[in-house]
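Re: N6-Methyladenosine 5'-triphosphate structure - here you go.
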Amino acid sequence: MYLRKIYTLVFLRNETQILLGLKKRGFGLNKWNGFGGKVEHNESIIDAAIRELREECCVDVNKSDLKNIGHLEFTFEGESILMDVRVFSASVYEGVPTETEEMAPKWFKYEEIPFDDMWPDDRIWFPYLLKNKLFYGIFHYKGYDTILNYEVKELKCMETFYKNKK
Ligand SMILES: CNc1ncnc2c1ncn2[C@@H]1O[C@H](COP(=O)(O)OP(=O)(O)OP(=O)(O)O)[C@@H](O)[C@H]1O
């Protein structure tokens, strides 16, 4: 049995670009990714998503502007933690993305996403995000570079997915 830990992952987007941040410390160091982190005790997932976005790139987003677009699960050979990642997208927000101690934000055109410098799983599930499709993915890693096996599929509705998951 795995010990499930819930994380958030937020992407700001506009018509032509997506905001990624270069991780400057900790897990995923030197990789481009969305903004997010662990959900704290007594904190809702959506509140954690808002907090992490503010802490990591100084941008504020309203609850109602954050859309849950996907669910990812990661396990690592020999480790008992299951990372349960809730993926969100927003196109309405306040503030200018600004570099912090944790992340250096940069807008990327959709055709220029730096997959070579991202988590290997991103290349597999990003096509769903880019086509505005809801998605579910599970990935089992050996170390942090090799995906041993995975499954990704499109979802019709996140609420139904979570209702049936329990
Ligand atoms: C394995 N494949 C993966 N593919 C894509 N994204 C991944 C990921 N694995 C983790 N992520 C995301 O990376 C962030 C880590 O966050 P992380 O820095 O550990 O959290 P937090 O800020 O709470 O940590 P500290 O406060 O520094 O301890 C968090 O958004 C999480 O969703």
